[in-house]
Amino acid sequence: MALDRLDIALLTAMRDHPRAGALELSRRLGVARATVQARQQRLESSGVVTGYGPDIDLEAAGQQLMAFVTLEIAQGALDQVASELEAIPTVLEAYATTGSADVLCKVATTSHTELQDTLVELNRSPSIVRSTSVVVLGTVVAPRVLPLLERSAEERGARAPAYRG
């Protein structure tokens, strides 16, 4: 779905003011409430907006240690590995990748001991040939998507006729 500048402004306002209703968002953006509601519905139904859950700071929630783990897996074992990874609560995300590793996992734990336990559990899988872990020391760029969407809208010259921002 192609996003225009009003879509980006709305997404930014929703991120910056997550508890704001359509009326408040319309005031912040200088557009009609019906426009905001229609845009929100379109963003939701197209799958651009996938939820409104709270952002959670893992460190504040007691998960002080984060690591990225690459997995080399047995040929044709991706489905089995996916099921195994889903069963491990410390595995937050996992992606099939190209290159020397087959899967990249994001892991969070309360301690080095729990990280070691997670790595041992991963290596018990008959489908995982090798794992390599890298401990995160700090965040350089926090997860974000809006700068990318803003650039894409600008490159297309996408303008929202009703938006005065």
UniProtKB/TrEMBL annotation:
Q: Which residues are in the HTH asnC-type domain? A: 3-64
* Top-level taxon of the source organism: Bacteria
Q: Which organism is it from?
A: Nocardioides panacisoli
Q: Look up the coiled coil feature and give its residue ranges.
A: none
Give UniProt keywords alphabetically.
DNA-binding, Transcription, Transcription regulation
UniProt-listed InterPro entries: AsnC-type_HTH_dom (IPR000485), Dimeric_a/b-barrel (IPR011008), Tscrpt_reg_AsnC-like (IPR019888), Tscrpt_reg_AsnC/Lrp_C (IPR019887), WH-like_DNA-bd_sf (IPR036388), WH_DNA-bd_sf (IPR036390)
Please identify the protein, giving its name as recorded.
Answer: Lrp/AsnC ligand binding domain-containing protein
PANTHER family noted in UniProt: LEUCINE-RESPONSIVE REGULATORY PROTEIN (PTHR30154), TRANSCRIPTIONAL REGULATOR AZLB (PTHR30154:SF34)
